[in-house]
Amino acid sequence: MAACRNAAATMAARLQFPASRTDQLALAVTEAASNLHKHAERGSLLLYVSREAEPPGIVLVTIDAGPGLADVGTVWRDGHSTAGTLGIGLGAIRRLADFCDLYSMPGRGTALVARFWPAPCQPAIGYAGLIRPITGETECGDAYGVVQTGETVTALLCDGLGHGPLAAAAAGEAVAAVLEAPADEPAALLTRAHRRLSGTRGGAMGIVQITGRAARFAGLGNIAASILSAGSRKGMLSVPGIVGHQARTIRQYEYEVPPDAAIVLHSDGISSRWDMAAVPGLDARDPLLIAAVLLAAAGIHRDDAGVLVLKP
After folding, report:
1. What is the distance between the alpha carbons of residues 63 and 112, in angstroms, rounded to a whole number?
2. Which fold has domain 2-116?
3. Most confidently modeled range among 29-38, 52-61, 83-92
């Protein structure tokens, strides 16, 4: 817990948070770490810098594999505890953060997301992604990128073949190939990435482009893509192949995006067997919270894992 608190304070100092705000962030992170220690199974805590507003802020994410909460509403109240303690942690985090939310189901674990800015701020969050390397590696072979050009959002997720630095290099090259000219349609972007990755390990890749209520998608290999809406999950079609090495054909498909829908792309480090019925209401939540829940509930520790969520 002390290591987490110190890391948060160091990040806040680097971003020139006011001293009082640094103390609030450090307290919230300590409470989150304490909560994981008391209740979690295979719990993880992530801190990272967010540039979704200026000046940048700090995001806190925790996930765990159980035991979950039967009544999420009660845990925000000070004094509630399932471990015989004072039970002030989650209520304190919610008060201190500019944004805080969690999702939990009994027996399926809990995910928490909290955002902290140097001064009060509530930016609109339209997308979020999480990547996690295979156990034992420090570099992840999954990578994602998102860019907005006018009214159009272009996003991609790439899973570099294998693991470690060479897989990460292939995925990074795929992101660079797309982001250098993101206004092209997904099929053209995927074709360019295919040429660029010829000297790398290659990988699987999915590219989605959203304009209004229309989405265009092109995928090569086993990147899963879905539209989540009103408790349902509609898959988006990808074709077999390996970006950089094998692509008999590259096809682009078009889909209608319902209001309030979420679009999810994930690598095969997230099991494709996750079921919307097991996570009711998840599609309506914050993009980062959706990504965290899927990583916690369906992430495979024997592989790199990446998930990207967009809410147009």
Report:
1. 7
2. Heat Shock Protein 90 (3.30.565)
3. 52-61
